[in-house]
Amino acid sequence: MKDEWDVIVVGGGHAGIEAALAARRKGCSVVLISAKRNRIGEMSCNPAIGGIAKGTIVREIDALDGSMARTADATRLHFRMLNRSKGPAVWGPRVQSDAAEYASAQQSYIGNRGVEILEDEVTGLEGLTEKVKGVRCRGRGCVKGKAVVLATGTFLKGMLYRGDEKWKGGRIGDISADLLEKDIVKRMFHVERFKTGTPSRIVRKTVNTEELEVQTSEKTNFNFSYEKQMICEKEVVCYITYTNRKTMEIAKENLHLSPLMAGRIEGTGPRYCPSYEDKVVKFPERISHKIYVEPMGYRSRYFYLNGLSSSLPREAQEKMVRSLQGFGKAEIADYGYAVEYSYFHYTEIDDTLRLRRSENVFVAGQICGTSGYEEAAGLGLVAGANAGRVAKCLEPLSLSRMNSYIGVMIDDIVSKGADEPYRMFSSRAENRLHLRQDNADRRLYLTGDRFDIMSDEKKELLTGNMKEAERIKYILENETVDGVRLSKWCRRPEMSVGKIITVSDALVDSEEKILMSVLLDEKYSGYIERNLRKNESRRNLEKISLREINSYMEIDEICWEAREVLERERPETLARAERIPGIRPTDLQGLLIYLGRKRSTWNNSRAGEM
Amino acid sequence: MNSISPEIICAVATPEGTSALSIIRVSGKGSFGLLENIMSLEKNRLRGMRRKVGRISEKGRTVDEVVAVSWPEGKSFTGEEMVEIICHGIPQATRTIMEMLIRQGARRAEPGEFARRALGNGKMNAVQIITLAALWDTEKSKKVFNGETEESCMKLLNKIETAREIVEGNIEFDEIHLDGDGKHIRSVFCELMARAKDFRRKAASIEKSCRVMIMGPTNSGKSTLFNVLTGKQGALVSDEPGTTRDGSTCFMEVRGRRIQICDTAGSNGIGLDRKASEAVIRGLDEKDRVIWMSVGGRIPPADEVKKRVGEVIEIAAKSDLKDEMEMKQILNISSVSGEGLENLRDIISRVPGSMSLSGAAERIEESIKKSYKFISSQEYDLAAEHINEAEIEARRIIGKGENIHLSVERALNSMCVGK
After folding, report:
1. Within this chain, do residues A306 and A372 fall inside the same structural domain, yes or no?
2. Whether residue A420 is found in the same domain as residue A531
3. Residue A438 counted as domain residue
4. Backbone phi, then psi, for B254, in 5-degree steps?
5. Does any CB of chain B come closer than 8 Å to the CB of residue A521?
6. Which of A176, A510, B97, B403 is least buried, going by the fewest C-beta atoms within 10 A?
């Protein structure tokens, strides 16, 4: 093994994997450091990839040549297109994967791509914060690198809770990264605590599935990846059960034993993925909650109980599980628990996912305050690509929020942060009708091309898609049916791909998925154009730089509170300042007036010199 | 779709109504060609900074004889290729020219779009725009509301928020489906539409009833001022006190805003005049503004007038008669010499009621209807788009949760098209 790499990735979760691969595609030598080689790529929580907005992120990752989409396709056992009846702009593809297969597929994928793996514990950064020399490991000592990506997930000073049990760990069966956290705190970074949790895993054969509602997989030709590849032939069914009055009562009786309720956990949990205890407290009027029963794999002996995350003591969890229809004799293999971990405050991170105070340290995944595999992978890809670019002395990549969910996510977390783990929602995107799952390849093609993020094969494939879309667009613009231009004709509500193909010979042999996607572009084009127009004024604010302001404390035009906040946050542009909590419109107008005055005196004095 | 196609936009830049001349602005790449086409000029005749006289004809009939002034990219107000068409201010002709431009591929500009493009191309900074908009809008827009209308709008916004939460919730969480037959969302939207209608009616009633009354003692020059301001010889004028008895009314454009202005009978406290002026005072409303004029500002407005209306603008009239002048801290006006008239126009232009509240209310109503239509056809993505639109509009009116993004936007939108 070498002793110096271009990029060091700390952590082998969904973020770390995409980071390592993105840096590799940039031609960098990459080492991924993980405490346990065989747990790289593990699905620590549910065995599923995708969902509303999340599924679109997965497709964006594929458009930028990441691995999540491919691996999810290759290991999928169950597929559903969520929101199918709610409009194609918000369709959310979601698959159940074989968790064990997923991890091993990811491991061999990164191995094949030449990412080196080092089994060790990272105990700190090496060298000055402004420009680190690498990382320090417990076993190997100093590992040198030109850039570092921290993707520690829940491991950063991870603390696990269940009832009154409390122990150190990043995840059940894994150590926590306490020394690394200590080092980060020593370097005066602002870190905070979040918590999350996972439900119990049930022994499959002890569940009477006869008593459960069945949810079969949809028959489909859908692929997350734009590449044509084999889809896993295997298929499983999922089940649905419901919590009932008894479940609720058990939870209520044991509430005082919950580490969260008893105040032992200080971190904030995800509002949209709450524990069952949280649901009981927040929605006391709802007696029944839906629980999805998902097999952990094709041959796996375990079920995952989606919707019954809990950190109550073992006995309470057991009683709760057994109160469910079909689970009367169920045995729990792994009990649910909560995990509390450290993450970087948003003010520490810039829009390329670099730590503002360091030239070459990047962050991705839960360490940025997000939640979810897809979010982590999307961030990992950007952080890894940028780490690679730093190592190769190239300008950084940043994504626009008008063009991708990944762009929306990064912009949100670095400009306003979150007071709970950040989950992607489609409504966070103002250009939602454009950010669809069907057009991720075309949306991101230019970015991928410009920043040279794709392998040659991928580029060839996507270039083909672009050309086909252009060809279809040309036909729609130029051919007519009964004197009506096709592009207009196809907007009729009763129109379908099948019908359109029949009216034009040139469309008969067109790629169906691309045709569908272009038709959606047509359908939404009026709205999308309007959204882009609206965004214009926002971009104008982005053009107004605040960098030339040395001290906010002397700006009389704005109030004292705002001066303090701005002095601390130092936004780069007016658009950023606008979104800092506590900054009011009057302060921004004050800033504008100040800037205008300052610039005119500056111009005058310069004119005087001449 | 990475950038917006720089479309050609057009708008009438002068206030509506009959005038000697009218200006139509056209901006965007391709404007020169468009104009050369319409004016039947040879190709490239407008390229560069040019002035061309020409005829615009439609189907062989001359619409108007116009002057086109062109600016090349980088040299114009918007920073884009731009043409100003100076035509005769006959509304019919102006309208026809606009229609021709649109048929040829231009798009009607949105309010403030010229300024927005100027900002985008670095021809104008945000400070200038906001300052410009401040001159335009002023903080007085708040006063547009009476409590009742504001409350109506708040309630509407409240309902819109509820509806939007339902729609968005339905999108974000697949497991949430509309309760059974969708009764709940139907009832929410029913109430929402009723609220929107209520608000639209209230908004419309405010705008109609907001007037500027010219009042004051007899023979202080009210009718002369009325005539000068409205550019009409509508009111009978004479040196004989008490010439105006019935008063006259006129809608006029002041600084691009539509305002109802009324001339009233003067009050000297006796007989017929007194009765007429008392009737005027009884008819006053808190939404009205009064211009109280007296020669040299010697007679203060009556208390009952002050009590009834929102604001009294005191002016000293006939300031050209210097010998009668007394120094007072009020606006000096001479309708004869024109002194102080510009100031007065500024003041009048800030009178509430000129903000297009009912226009906004109509847009909200329209958005809600569209949103509901898309819910019925199960297109939640589009339903969300429209209900979102309604919420932004309602927030803009109330000024709730506004950030500078919205405020610049609002500033731009509050400006007249083509400015």
Report:
1. yes
2. no
3. no
4. -120, 120
5. yes
6. B403
- Look up the CATH number of domain B211-349: 3.40.50.300
Residues 303..332 of A with a Cβ closer than 8 Å to B: which?
none
Specify if A439 maps to a domain: no
Q: Which residues neighbour B272 within 8 Å (Cβ) at sequence distance 6 or greater?
A: B242, B245
DSSP secondary structure letter of residue A231: P
Subunit contact B1:A532, Cβ cutoff 8 A = yes
Quick check: A92 contacting B, CB < 8 Å? yes
CA distance B316 to B328: 8
Q: Which domain holds residue A549?
A: 544-609
Same domain, A518 and A549: no
pTM value is 0.71
Name the residue of chain B whose CA is nearest to A597's CA.
B127
Residues A290 and A370 reside in one and the same domain: yes
Q: What is the 3-state secondary structure (H, E, C) of A102-157?
A: HHHHHHHHHHHCCCEEEECCEEEEECCCCCCCEEEECCCEEEEEEEEEECCCCCEC
Helices in A544-584 by DSSP H: which ranges? 560-569, 574-578
Looking at the 3D structure of chain A, how many domains does it have? 3
Residues 6+ apart with CB under 8 A from A177: A121, A122, A152, A155, A156, A157, A158, A170
CB atoms A87 and B382 under 8 Å? yes
Tell me if A538 and B382 make a contact (CB, 8 A cut-off).
no
pLDDT of A600 > 60? The answer is no
CA B203 to centroid of chain Cα atoms: 14
Q: CB distance B377–A493 less than 8 Å?
A: yes
Superfamily for B9-124? Probable tRNA modification gtpase trme; domain 1 (3.30.1360.120)
Residues of chain B in contact with residue A466, where contact means CB-CB under 8 angstroms, are: none
**β strands within A282-331, DSSP E:** 290-295, 302-309
The answer to whether residue A582 neighbours chain B at the CB level (below 8 Å) is: no
Instruction: Evaluate the CA torsion angle A510, A516, A517, A522 in order and state its sign.
Output: positive
CA-CA distance, A53 to A432, in Å (whole number)?
9
Whether residue A505 is found in the same domain as residue A384: no
CA distances to A38, A39, A68, A97, A110 from A105, in Å:
11, 12, 10, 11, 9
Statement to judge: residues A57 and A191 lie in one domain? yes
User: In whole angstroms, what is the distance from residue A555 CA to residue A592 CA?
Assistant: 11
Instruction: Find where tokens 């990811």 sit.
Output: A106
Cβ distance A427 to B409 less than 8 Å, yes or no, reads no
In this structure, is residue A393 part of a structural domain? yes
Cβ within 8 Å, pair B405-A541: yes
pLDDT tens readout for residues A89-98: 999 999 999 9
Give me the residues of chain B with pLDDT under 70, please: 1-6, 15-18, 111-112, 119, 122, 124-147, 174-182, 205-210, 231-247, 251-259, 267-276, 286-287, 310, 319-330, 349-359, 396-419
Nearest CA in chain B to A435: B1
- Amino acid, single-letter form, for residue B14: T
CATH number, domain with residue A586: 1.10.150.570
Q: How far is B32 from chain A (nearest CA, A)?
A: 23
Q: What is the CATH number of the domain that holds A499?
A: 1.10.10
A541:B408 CB<8 A: yes
**Judgement on whether residues A28 and A130 belong to the same structural domain of the protein:** yes
- What angle, rounded to 10 degrees, do the helices at A585-609 and A560-569 form? 70
Work out the burial of residue A456: count CB atoms within 10 Å of its CB; fewer than 13 is exposed, 13-18 middle, 19 or more buried. Answer: exposed
In angstroms, the separation between the Cα of residue B73 and the nearest Cα of chain A is 19
